Amino acid sequence: MKKRKHVDFEPAEQDRVFAQVLDELGPALLEADPSLGPRIDAARAESIAAEGGDKTGVLLVNHGSRAAGWRRMLLDVHAQAESDLLAIPGVAQVRSAFMEYAEPSIATQLRAFDAAGIETVIVVPLLLTISDHTFDDIPAICGLHEDEARLTQLREEKIEVYAAEAELRFAPLLDFSGLVRTNLARRVRAIVGRPPPDPGARRDGLVLVGYGSAEFEDEWTRFFAEARGFAESELGFVASAHAWCGHIVGYRRAPTIEAIESVLRVADRAIVLPVLVAYDPMFQERIIGRAVERCAAPDRVLYRPDSILPEPAVARWVVDVARRMAPASA
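RESULT FIELD:
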């Protein structure tokens, strides 16, 4: 039997290798035994302290969903971005958190950052555009909001509030990056295919369906109007409309049906596109999908129950924005 070669590492190299092993095996260990969490965090803290330098963490925050497929899409962004994020000088940890419906929560992950000795946390919301979640809820969950009514609402919804010891830096939202337009064009091409040789041979219209926000309806309407303007001027649509499918309309199908039928009055076909970050059967199937089935002319509608994710540009955007906001880059 061959003897295994023993390799001696310098102390600094030992710390680096140990940190790498924790990053690779930590999620699997936690899934097998959640009680290992404090021990893993303590080990990471020792590794970070030994490495010295800036102690920065990146927290990818998303809304959360009861749908496993929805959560998996957001965790895929974490997996795609993690190695590049950890390559940013000073970044020692990357974590993902769900605002509600699932663990790990924002409070759970902020507490873990504090336990690991992280001094600065870059909070990157993987949310489409401004809403009460980004403007009120996430800061409140992070202990930065003193509105008692908001805090009472979070308690009633059993969402834990945690004021981190680390400095928090909040990144902009997805709509500020321009990638939504790129994503829109790619998904339209996937549904429609190549344009006909004669541009006048077919007149297509576009229907964008989003969650919506009662408190920030003007901002959402402006964002969707800009996306529709891009679709008409750059993608060749002869008409467009948008509709909400979330709580602002009581999760009803009627607004989507009305938007589809308004487009079909002036176009040969309606292309229906969900402008939702990830896939949840409640929205893409039960609300939007059935609205397509129940409109006046479903045979003239093209629909694919997809979402913004998977989109490689999202992971690249996360890395770019974290690189700009990291203390070592300031």
